Amino acid sequence: MAVTEDRRLSSEIVSIDPLSLVSYTYSKNEIKLNKLEKSDKNAFYTSYLQTRDVISATIDVSRNIPDSDLKDAIEIKVYDELALDSAIEYSISYIETESKDSKNRSFNIFIIDATLIHSKLTPIKEKTRYIDYVTAAPFLIKALYRKNFIEAEGTHCFVYFQKADAFLTIYKGGEYIYSKSLHYSLKEINEKFCELIGERIDEEDFYKLLTNEGLRATNNQYQQSLMQLFGEIFLYISDVLVFTKRSYNIDFIDRIYLGSEIGTFSGIEEYGKSYLGLESFEFNFSIAINSKEWYIDQIHILMMLSAQLYMENQDDNLNFSIYKRPPPLKYRASGKLLGIMAASIILSLAYPAYQFAYHSFLSLKAVKETSEYNEIFQKTSAIRQELAQLKAEKEKVDTLVNNETTKFEFRKKLLSEIYNKKISYPMKALMLLEIFQLSNQNGCKVEAIEFKQKQLNFFVRNQSEKRITEFIQDLTALKKYRITTDKIIQDDKIKLYTSKISIGLNDE
């Protein structure tokens, strides 16, 4: 729903965490930490609600119900089917989903206790006066598709761990399908980890462990406990995905994005592959020229992108803010009334004088413009003749330019191909020579090599698992390539260890 532009808003976007009140400003392609008390009053303020605060469900409504009665019909059915307490005021929003049922329309319903919204947003409102846009965390993902950070094709799963919550959401074709609050917030993971190791670890120290060493912790007890804990987490996620695929007729999930409020957990991608059978991608998106200076909670990035979308197309269907900025005076009913009264008074006084002055003005103008018309007509005839000549000359020049452009593009393409062949093959040869030398030093035999775009896949084997590991360490120490490896597998038949090592040029 397009609305009239509110020129009171500046281009500065302020994202606010409703729990910690930590906020960032996004302006001129830079993100900076922000103090709410010192924010620009004309900035666009945005926040979010946690997934656990939202009751979500799917209901069917008869297609015979007209759109004018749809909202009431949905609310009645929601209270009936979900057994909501009629004494509690709820904010109910909905979006229609695809349905093959010829008799019923299907809707995703989102329900939030109005008192909860008030308690979450009031501390922000006390510092900012207004909150322009508030939505639930899973709905923020849609901005990644609309802003072309992710291609909309396929079905994608997003898992994000926050300190006080964790959520899973699924999008298909760039549209929301399902979301669920998970039982494994960062604080809950910390508590379970402390139970497993039998000692108390400070939360911040635990978060550093997850982001620095992660599931490859150097402390053997820590590593075993983390492996057990994340095994449970991913089994739980697997159960949720099985339920979702069955309930929403999803055949296949193409990829999963994993991330957290504190950063990426080292080694977590292996769990996505092992327990879910899905290729894992890092939930980390950059929108500012200084984004690499420090890690920013991705929810703030999503809030900023969603704010941009909202300012472009002010759709309040999933906007749960109860402290929206009032429209400018001229768009309010009182402002329109004042404008009409002022215009009426001015017109009633000015009309007679206007009629006399305008008649005199038109008479003088008619005489002057008649004389100017005759002069302009003569000049116009001469210009038309010149334009006809210039047009003919232009067509000749365009023909010559097109011919020369065709020749230039052909030669440019030919030179580019020659250059690429001269540069690419020697580079690959040098790269292979260096890698083979290292493999010989470590006694590793290369069984096969695959070329895939800018990546070489080496399949190596050795009687010693350690020698393969040392070979990988030597490659990594060169700091010239990106090294990724599969697990080292023991083949009992031939009594050898084998591993696949993927090597590519380092972007840095």
Any key phrases for this structure?
508 residues; alpha+beta; five-stranded mixed sheet; 22% strand; disordered N terminus
Structural overview:
This protein is an alpha+beta fold. 45% of the residues lie in helices and 22% in strands. The protein has eleven helices and 18 strands. Strands 3-2-1-4-8 form a five-stranded mixed β-sheet, with helices on both faces. It has a five-stranded mixed β-sheet with strand order 11-10-9-12-13. Strands 14, 15, 16, 17 and 18 form a five-stranded antiparallel β-sheet that branches. The longest helix is centred in the last third of the chain and has 109 residues. The radius of gyration is 33 Å and the shape is extended.
Question: What's this entry about, in short?
Answer:
The chain is an alpha+beta fold.
Contiguous runs where pLDDT drops below 50 for at least 5 residues: 1-5
**Share of residues in helices:** 40-55%
What oligomeric arrangement do these chains adopt?
Answer: single chain
**How large is the share of residues in beta strands?**
15-25%
- Computed over alpha carbons, the radius of gyration is 33 Å
